[in-house]
Amino acid sequence: MSVLSQEDINNVTSGKDTTTTGQEDDTTKIPLATNIGKTASTNLSDLDRDLGFILDIPLQISVELGRTSMLISDLLRLGQGSVVELRKPAGEPMEIFVNGKLFARGEAVVVNEKFGVRLSEVIAPGERIKTLG
Asked: Which of 10, 40, 58 finishes a domain?
């Protein structure tokens, strides 16, 4: 598991385009958030180059703070200033979904007055594949 430091977050928001995963090998360079939605240009292995055609496919990413259920009558009584209590206890990590599938968990951060999520746990690829079936 890798956690971004404040310096990493500042680099992302200032436009610096890559970071390394801590190893000096060029094949470990990964694009940061500033490259999302742009053509990915990284040092890729032969296998990654063969898969390069999928790198520009857009993905829907959502972050879930929590869930609850309520009766229609309770929903209709909600108004400005109402509070909806969620089932998730305070302090538990939020869940990050990619195209509706759980990908990671993390904590809320503020970067340049915008919300973000610092990943604290990335779901293992094997577990993610099990949810596809």
From this structure: 58
